[in-house]
Known about the structure:
Blueprint: H1 3-43, H2 54-57, H3 62-82, H4 86-89, E1 90-95, E2 98-105, H5 108-118, E3 126-129, E4 132-133, H6 136-153, H7 157-166, H8 170-183, E5 192-197, E6 200-207, H9 210-221, E7 228-235
Parallel strand pairs: 2-3, 2-4, 6-7
Antiparallel strand pairs: 1-2, 5-6
Helix pairs in contact: 1-3
Amino acid sequence: xxxxxxxxxxxxxxxxxxxxxxxxxxxxxxxxxxxxxxxxxxxxxxxxxxxxxxxxxxxxxxxxxxxxxxxxxxxxxxxxxxxxxxxxxxxxxxxxxxxxxxxxxxxxxxxxxxxxxxxxxxxxxxxxxxxxxxxxxxxxxxxxxxxxxxxxxxxxxxxxxxxxxxxxxxxxxxxxxxxxxxxxxxxxxxxxxxxxxxxxxxxxxxxxxxxxxxxxxxxxxxxxxxxxxxxxxxxxx
Length: 237
């Protein structure tokens, strides 16, 4: 298979998964909630937040989570329809109808067009287009870096840890932030989504208080390897 065909196949698979996410999410939410309640009843302990229970513990309602998943799936589909490589070069995060775009492109006009594709969905209440304009060489370099990062994720846990320890790249920064927010007191990490682009971190979500927002930003700014932080965190009223 040629490189172009392999790229298109990978993006098509990603889009297909996203399109099925909305349909599967309602069932998954119900199942996860039932599992958590059962586990708590059997053990007599407070459930622990894990990757399997993130959706339940978010402050977003099930209805809002489903809507955000549908918005995200639609964006990926429109990106793929425009250019199969767009979902690779542009990362999309959706939180309560607010959309954060990060990544790298080498064409300012395409950056604007990408924003227009997002706004085609009337459910989008705010768009933060933080896509960086770089040279074609820089864009290709990031693609290769992300491919290597994905290969590391597919290795054993020990090998992955060793790999991340050697290279302080975007994947390392994102993983470090995840760990620190999970361990931080007074922070509900499941209410945030973040991306690192050339170690410049962009974060979106909702804080339960101004104090929590300040704590999150402090953690991000003090994370090794982070060059800058830009936030789109709303404080819950």
